[in-house]
Design a protein that fits this description.
By secondary structure, the chain is mostly helical. The chain is 70% helix and 0% strand. Keywords: Membrane, Transmembrane, Transmembrane helix.
Length: 80
């Protein structure tokens, strides 16, 4: 394939459209990061005799925090 063929193919493709509207990203970030904060508080009140529950709460808080930070960055224009 030469450059002109690839350029024609590229120009014929539809533009990118995200699955989640960018106007919802601040609210998603708020919900996810608030949930992370609440789970971190809950984690600090757990008895140290339940390691499985501690691990589950910590993993959930970590995942929610990770997605919340990405949503927050994307909502302010830093697309990661």
């Amino acid at each position: 394939m030469d450059y002109a063929t690839i350029q024609t193919l590229h120009n014929s493709l539809p533009s990118f459209s995200p699955y989640v509207p960018t106007s919802l990203l601040p609210f998603i970030a708020l919900i996810l990061l608030s949930s992370t904060f609440a789970l971190a508080f809950y984690f600090s009140t757990l008895p140290k005799t339940a390691p499985i529950r501690e691990l589950g709460v910590a993993l959930l808080a970590s995942v929610l925090g990770g997605f919340g930070v990405v949503a927050l960055f994307c909502s302010v224009g830093v697309y990661v």
